[in-house]
Design brief:
Length: 123
């Protein structure tokens, strides 16, 4: 079971990034996926999640209206499109996979985690 996140980088405030998370090891479409982030000195926090079918999504308040979570089950890949980035969005972003078709905001709902990708936003 592997999750590989990529797409992070350095961007100016107001810019955009698209994160990707490639999954292997289990039938991708059966399981919910999520994005979390952790800034220096802070606890890991929920960003967004998407059901296995992609019909349902949920966002943390800071992500609403700016971030879009999506998935391509044919490619075993999940995405996080991040627009209008702010300095407070700077963190290591982690993708995670649940063993259920739907998972929400809590990290305990997820069983597999990727290594994370750094997002740096300059003001």
């Amino acid at each position: 079971v592997q999750l590989q996140a990529c797409g992070g980088g350095l961007v100016q405030a107001g810019g955009s990034l698209r994160l990707s998370c490639a999954a292997s090891g289990r039938t991708f479409s059966n399981y919910a996926m999520g994005w979390f982030r952790q800034a220096p000195g802070k606890e890991r926090e929920f960003v967004a999640s998407i059901s296995g079918s992609a019909r349902s999504t949920v966002y943390a308040d800071p992500a609403k209206g700016r971030f879009t979570i999506s998935r391509d089950n044919a490619k075993n890949t999940m995405y996080l499109q991040m627009n209008s980035l702010k300095p407070e969005d700077m963190a290591v972003y982690y993708c995670a996979r649940s063993r259920r078709s739907w998972a929400g905001r809590n990290s305990y709902e997820y069983d597999d985690w990727g290594h994370g990708t750094q997002v740096t936003v300059s003001s």
